[in-house]
Design a protein that fits this description.
The structure holds 2 protein chains of 2 kinds. Chain A is an alpha+beta fold. Chain A contains 5 helices and 7 strands, in the order βαββαβαββαβα. Chain A has 2 domains: 68 residues, VC0802-like; 71 residues, VC0802-like (2-Layer Sandwich), CATH 3.30.2130.10. In chain A, a hairpin with a 7-residue loop joins β5 and β6. Chain B is α/β, with parallel strands linked by helices. In chain B, a hairpin with a 2-residue loop joins β18 and β19. In chain B, α7 packs across α8 and α8 runs parallel beside α9. The two termini of chain B are 30 Å apart. The chains are: A alpha+beta, B alpha/beta.
Chain lengths: 143, 436
């Protein structure tokens, strides 16, 4: 169910993003999805890659601060109102979304959205009960 | 004008014989009443009767700020607490402040020396003294206040902050003398300009500015922006508070230190050897009339040089040059004493923070700024922006609680702060490049 996401702390100075993607590229790690949250001083790069363990170890070797978190990938109908219906389910069940971002590839005719919840297990239960399709962690990196 | 002609213009020989007598009395008294001094005199093998000439002072051991901390709060007091009528304190390096106590006569001495200082700066009866030094545990506010009343001036006990109100009162009450930190005087000028007040045309004529180091360039800026004479005043709470020394308005060239109450030495901070007049080193002060907490050879850590050349104002007391730095790592930020170790102690108490940090001190416009760079490690790192901002907010709040200084906290990647062999460069003070 769950997908492993890695996060990287990035100071706001030129070249840091290029360095992260460079390190991953050299290690032959493929980035499947990403989002960047930024403030005036620092940014947090969140990544879904095809090999998390390798990504973590090569980034640590280059002195990046990293950690991993569990997120889930949800199939969302690729039509107007598709995302809204899922968010309404979450809201009705008082599930808080910490953040979310879109996956690059589609799953069949559906879009894929990555969600970060405070309480991921509760969120999964609610989504499943409401017939929302959650993409398997193994599968998501090979879409 | 001279407040106390008898003492301020004493011939040098008379000053020195008075100093010797008072030094001998002080040494005898602290040996008899303060266990700390009995102990260190004994260990140094020096007897009170060994002090036969003024130069013999160098046989006595030094007193350090650390000794005041170790004897917190009242351990160095030379009189029973019931003879202490006032207690002040300055921020300490490890959370505990440095405490000083004044007897009735000490307050009288302080008032007299502040009165001399106001006169030296050209303030008199008839002046309206706008006292913007902080009132409270800090010695600045009350010290200046008592002296201002003594000379018969009208004192406005403003204390710090609330700048717009300060300007309104300055305009409406016709303040003629301003007492505050040099940077605050410039800040007043800046806010006045924003408010459309022509501060150059107010009744202000003199600023008596101290509690932080400043430069000759800054003096020129203050004098032109406020259209006043800017006078440098020196003091430290351990010795007395404001009024240990002051520039005279006639020469504005070095600060007269009241030698009938203080014995001055300049030492090499590394070898601790006494240096001759005119050579730069650390100022060491022995109080020779204080009752509450007399200090023997107190190492001020302030770097300056001494001259006993006569001054055009007629005062015969020695002058110290405008302070040019510190022999320790203390920073003065907006008039507040800050040791890097204090910030370090805050960081160490926050779980997961790397003990690597750097302080960037700068001056933005007229106010000092402090930025604390902290490395983020995997324990503290979160994928949520909110949590990292909470962390920097927590650091900022704890520093503010301990020091009373608002700083900016910047989280940086690990291993980005330089680790040099040996001593890390913890502090980058950009102010010194621009001003000192």
């Amino acid at each position: 169910m769950k997908v492993e996401q890695i996060s990287v702390f990035i100071e706001n100075k030129s070249g840091r993003l290029a360095e992260v993607s460079g390190v991953l590229g050299e290690a032959n790690v493929n980035i499947r999805a990403l989002s960047l949250a930024d403030t005036s001083d620092f940014g947090i790069l969140r990544l879904i890659v095809d090999n998390s363990e390798k990504a973590l170890s090569v980034l640590r070797d280059r002195h990046f601060t990293v950690n991993k978190t569990e997120v889930i990938g949800v199939e969302v109908p690729d039509s107007p109102g598709g995302l809204s219906s899922i968010l309404r389910i979450l809201d009705n069940n008082q599930i808080n979304v910490e953040y979310m971002y879109a996956f690059v590839e589609r799953s069949g005719s559906n879009a894929v959205i990555i969600f970060r919840f405070d309480n991921v297990d509760q969120a999964i239960a609610v989504l499943l009960k409401n017939g929302v399709n959650i993409i398997d962690g193994e599968k998501i990196t090979s879409i | 004008m001279i407040w106390n002609d008898d003492f301020e213009t004493l011939p040098r020989e008379a000053i020195e014989s008075l100093q010797l007598r008072r030094l001998q009395q002080t040494v005898e008294r602290v040996y008899a009443t303060v266990p700390f001094y009995r102990d260190i005199f004994d260990r140094a093998g020096v007897k009170t009767k060994d002090i036969k000439h003024l130069e013999d002072v160098k046989r006595l051991p030094f007193t350090l700020k650390k000794d005041m901390r170790d004897n917190y709060p009242y351990g160095l007091f030379a009189v029973p607490l019931e003879q202490i009528v006032r207690i002040h304190a300055s921020s300490g390096t490890t959370g505990k402040p440095t405490v000083v106590g004044y007897t009735k006569r000490d307050i009288e001495t302080w008032t007299e020396l502040m009165a001399r200082s106001f006169f030296a700066a050209g303030a008199h009866k008839g002046d309206v003294i706008h006292n913007a030094y902080g009132y409270g545990l800090f010695t600045g506010g009350l010290g200046a206040h008592y002296g201002a009343e003594r000379i018969g001036a009208s004192v406005i006990p403003m204390s710090g902050g609330n700048t717009k109100k300060q300007l309104m009162i300055m305009q409406d009450f016709g303040s003629t003398v301003l007492t505050c930190t040099p940077s605050y005087s410039l800040f007043l000028a800046e806010v006045a300009a924003e408010e459309g007040i022509d501060i150059r045309n107010l009744k202000l004529k003199v600023g008596i500015l101290g509690a932080e180091p400043w430069s000759e360039n800054m003096r020129q800026e203050i004098e032109s922006k406020l259209n006043i004479k800017a006078i440098d005043i020196y003091g430290l709470s351990e010795i007395l508070g404001p009024g240990v020394g002051i520039e005279c308005i006639e020469a504005q060239n070095g600060l007269h230190v009241w030698e009938d109450h203080f014995l001055l030495e300049i030492i090499d901070p590394d070898t601790q050897e006494v240096l001759p007049d005119g050579v730069k080193g650390e100022l060491v002060i022995t109080t020779i009339t204080k009752e509450g907490i007399p200090l023997i050879r107190y190492r001020t850590r302030d770097i300056t040089r001494l001259t006993r050349e006569p001054c055009i104002c007629g005062r015969t007391h020695a002058r110290i040059e405008r302070l040019s730095g510190r022999s320790d790592d203390m920073l003065i930020i907006r008039g507040v004493n800050v040791f890097p170790s204090q910030i370090e102690s805050v960081l160490f108490n926050i779980k997961g923070i790397e003990p690597h940090y750097q302080l960037l001190v700068d001056r933005e416009g007229t106010l000092d700024t402090l930025e604390v760079l902290v490395e983020v490690d995997e324990q503290t790192f979160s994928d949520e922006v909110r949590k990292l901002q909470q962390l920097s907010g927590q650091i900022q709040k704890q520093i503010k609680d301990l020091l009373g200084v608002t700083c900016k906290v910047r989280l940086v990647e690990p291993k980005t702060l330089a680790r040099s062999e040996g001593k890390a460069q913890r502090v980058i003070d950009k102010r010194s490049k621009n001003s000192l």
